[in-house]
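Ticket #4471: structure export looks truncated?
Reporter: QA, pipeline team
Priority: medium

Steps to reproduce: submit the single chain below to the structure queue and open the exported record.
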Amino acid sequence: MHIQVQLKEYVKLQDVLYEIDPKEEECFRLSRHLKVEYSSNMQKMDPDHLIALVTEVIPVNSCLLFCPTKKNCENVAEMICKYLKKVFLQHREKEKVNLLNELKSVGNGTMCPVLKRTVPYGVAYHHSGLTSDERKLIEEAYSAGTLCLLTCTSTLAAGINLPARRVILRSAYVATDFLKRSQYKQMVGRAGRAGIDLSGESILILQERDKQLAKELVCKPTENCYSNLLHDNGKGMLCLMLSLIGLSITRTLGEIRDFLSCTLFSVQEEQICREKCLWDIVKDSLDFLTQKGLVKTAAGKEEDALLEVTMLGRATFKGSIDLTNCDVLYRDLSRGLEGLMLNSFLHLIYLVTPYEMVTQCKPDWMIYFRQFTQLTAAEQKMSTAIGVPESFIARKASGQSVKKQKKTRNLTVWISSSKPLTVARNPQGSRQCGCEQAVSGFRALVSTERD
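Actual output as written to the record:
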């Protein structure tokens, strides 16, 4: 018999907790004053009283602390551990030692210095900067009770079953955007462990200036959910169809139509697409994929003709490449193979810089020219090879007009890819350059014949 876990939602303003009650006129009902015994230094380091909130439940029970950014996750984890009592080190000490050894093992002998300091206290961060092996170890340790507190970003709330006795939202913002109702519900929905707890708690930490926005957030109805398959000129539909064909889930137009008839889009078809019927959308999407050279059709009746992806199509969906630019990207990468320069990361990064960054880049040409002159001779040679010589940038820096041609696009992508050129050291100590992830897509596109 499944017993529903009761969720109690709170907001915190200064040192007061208010229970959320939509029936109340102000939406918030006074619950209690938080018992805070902070030194002046602790108050300065932890003005939101996170330490007081988490130590009410850990280490015996689990807690998730959502932070607005990845860096904030790490900083908060370290800050909390700095003020935790030594007794936390003794809780499941042996299991935590094993976890540290496993993290070091998957990191080829190295591990993130932050995790090295926080795991002994039963605390860790969880965000997209972790490798898949590290993420798995941390999730398993949290589920087993070895870790009692995770500081995490909002991505943990979606698709990962890591419930907690208490969930704390450090901010009403994700990055710089105020929370949406669906995001809020997704995060607080982690509170309460079915079969373990009878109730769960969520606490949203508020600043006075956000009080009115928060009332709307916690009390208004959840936003309507609509299919996104036709969003952004139907990119979702195109990607879905390419994947269906590439994975051999569907082999004909008729099978694609049958598949789509079981989606949310089919249910909402009359609401979100009144100009065309589902069949016309499917045929138009197939025409686009065929023209792009991603799909080919065997002889036969329109509805029953066999469909299969081309080598470029397979590389595109395996590499998660934007369908709009996949053919252009393939040509650029193939051209790059003719003279690929590997004496620095710059040429690879240039080749995999997203095309959409072109419109976002508005450089100060004089500053950029000075930076350009500091590149190595090999990097300047590479710049010339792709059509952006020093003389071209010098004319831009001096304010001279330059004819708009492909060179302008090359320059913009070059600028986007080379600012700033640093190999990022992942928080967990494993070296991850931005180009490493892109290289997999590079291999998929250029070495299509291997598939």
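Status: closed, not a bug. The export was complete when the record was re-opened. Leaving a note from the reviewer for reference: The chain is about 45% helix and 10% strand.
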